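Can't paste images in this forum, so I'm doing it all in text. The chain is below; anyone willing to post the predicted structure tokens underneath?
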Amino acid sequence: MKTTFYLFNPGRMSRKDNTLRFLPVSEEGIEGTPKYIPIEGVSDIFCFGSLDANSALYNFLGKAGIAVHFFDYYENYTGSFCPKEYLLAGKMQISQTKHYIDAKKRMILARKFVSGAAFNMTKSLRYYLNREKDVSLPLESIELLALQIEQTKAVDELMGIEGNIRQQYYQAFDTILNDFQMEGRSKQPPANELNAMISFGNMLCYSACLNQLYHTQLNPTISFLHEPGYRRFSLALDLAEIFKPVMVDRTIFRLLNICKSLGRTVERNIQASDIEPKCKLQAFDQVRML
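Text version of the structure:
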């Protein structure tokens, strides 16, 4: 089974025969012990540290079908190296484009994305409702809003309902997480620690969806819920809507449980940086494999 690799330390990656060779290099230029990664066991690479590489490496990764996702110093997603598409299908591209152009067909698919997201949100809230967390009010609100999904006639109207559903869903976080206050969803920049964790998780989910789209015949730039634009893979945004409640939010709850299992007191002013990125990604991978 192929594995996702996360690079935190700065260093130099190169090809060594049919193996990846990663040489850690400190900020002072001191080289560490090289590590060798069999190319057959790599699914994709998430790069959080400074990576020194050349075109020979990317040619090697491209032929092996391995994507590399880059994050900056503040753990913000900056871009991806995606190999050349190997499942080209002209008929699929034409059909996907026709479904986008046809308003009725587009709405059918767009509703499915929102319905899937709403289903996972309600499933998560019911889980905590059965564990003595009083989230009945936002749960009922989401179920009522979900009934309006099939009645929508335009994407803008559907996006409005999706936004209202997610707003109600995030209001339940203050009840589920006793030691945290979300105080509404905020981003660019996040207003508090919980919002920062959600934004970080959403970027991971987006990257994971993009990586899976690469292994299909679908064009990741032609989407149905989000409007296609320039320099972004909007179909990955569509898919991420479904999986964020499962992959991202469950990861956040798991991280808080990790803090408690380590005997730490989770205070209201805990910083997102207090939880190491490796710990965040370990929890994310555990949830993704469930």
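The radius of gyration is 21 Å. The longest strand covers residues 11-16.
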